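Minutes, structural biology subgroup

Action item carried over from last meeting: produce the structure token record for Caspase family protein (Mycolicibacterium komossense). EB confirmed the sequence was re-checked against the source entry. Recorded below for completeness.
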Amino acid sequence: MRKALIVGIDYYDHIGHLSGAVNDAHAVKNTLERNADGTLNFPTPHLLTGSGPGAPVTRQKLKESVRELFADDADIALFYFAGHGYIEDTGGYLCASDCQSGDDGFPLAEVMSLANSSRAKNKVIILDSCHGGAAGTNALNERVAEISDGVTILTASTAAQYAMETPGGGSGVFTSLGGLSTCRAATFSESKP
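Output recorded by EB:
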């Protein structure tokens, strides 16, 4: 059994919107569903998209979905995330639609804990977000990797970098071969609602 959770978030309640993460999520889903010869690859990839105020991806929904993805002994459990990322001295975060400050996002340490403890044979984590390279590192000692056997991580950026997307709904690094020019950096508001 192959399982995939594909997340793309363009809409954020309190931080800057993106324009291509949802498109990227759809492109990844379409690519994963079938092999080049048309045979089934990932039979029912789970797609979560945050495209507007009526369709947010909340932190709770993101966490529940990642927990469900890594809950059993699948042959492959693949997690793809396109959206804002955030980093501070306590580690990195994936920003859900309801994030207010970035550090209230879904901690990469929790993603890694769920993946590392999963009984799935192969766990693949693909992060098309700013600071994705923080996944698998220890916030207190960057020289220590916290990646167990069977876990593969691909990121669009290092822990210190911003990820890029093509303006106007264009692609991120994993769905485009070039033309990256707009930062997928979060604009955090100083005011609290």
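Discussion: The first helix runs from residue 21 to 33.
Next step: EB to file the record with the rest of the batch.
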